[in-house]
Design a protein that fits this description.
Length: 237
């Protein structure tokens, strides 16, 4: 019995340590995700500064907006985690709620509200639809989402990103929103969330623009699949 109990305790400690490593890894992933997602959009906070902001400390010389972009992103991730936990189906309400968290205290007037003006994406050939068609296009997107069962989950997650950011439903924060929506879909399907690295921003934007202008989603699909494989391999290691 003593040997049996020792073995039980050994396995218990091993499992506990394993869970701790996974938890620590996820916290590290989340930090890197917030840093990279914000950096892609022009936030100048470094990785270490992002960590400090998440700990509740203000960075001198950095704008209030940049601080809120970190804080809001963390809250949006927690909201996404709750959606997954409660097994809620993606809807326009959820999309607007995530966006509301992203722009909270930054642009409250437009947070969670579809844009009321036309926009141009700097550096892109793709031109988002006229704002008057946004409700109709978002309704069509949700209908597609609910009925699409043939795409591999990783590709469906990538398509969610491509299609919503192509509609560009909000005046600001669409990139952050769509990266969260993509990860929401990955996690709901049992895969791992991924981080689009700021160092690959140009490639990321090019593949998105290519998909929007040519309807060829394959380069973006491949990019996301590679990120997912890399993430899974790192966890296994």
């Amino acid at each position: 019995m003593e040997k049996l109990l020792q073995k039980i305790d050994l396995l218990k400690d091993k499992l506990r340590n394993h869970k701790r490593k996974i938890k620590n890894e996820y916290e590290d992933f989340k930090l890197n995700y917030i840093y990279n997602s914000n950096a892609i959009e022009g936030n100048t906070l470094t990785l270490k500064e992002t960590k400090v902001v998440l700990e509740g400390i203000t960075i001198g010389g950095k704008s209030l907006r940049e601080h809120f972009e970190v804080i809001n992103h963390n809250e949006a991730i927690e909201y996404v985690e709750n959606i997954i936990k409660e097994k809620q189906e993606l809807s326009e309400y959820i999309i607007k709620s995530i966006h509301n968290l992203i722009l909270k205290n930054i642009d409250n007037e437009n947070a969670g509200i579809y844009r009321k003006e036309n926009v141009i994406i700097s550096g892109a050939n793709h031109k988002p639809i006229d704002y008057i068609f946004i409700p109709e296009e978002m309704e069509r997107f949700i209908k597609w989402y609910k009925n699409e069962n043939n795409l591999h989950p990783v590709l469906k997650a990538a398509k969610v990103h491509i299609d919503v950011v192509g509609i560009h439903p909000f005046i600001d924060g669409n990139g952050r929103l769509c990266r969260l929506l993509m990860n929401l879909e990955l996690l709901k399907s049992g895969y791992e969330a991924i981080t689009i690295e700021n160092s690959r921003k140009v490639e990321y934007y090019e593949y998105l623009d290519h998909a929007h202008c040519t309807a060829d989603y394959n380069p973006f699909y491949k990019l996301i699949a590679e990120y997912e494989l890399k993430r899974l391999e790192s966890l296994i290691e």
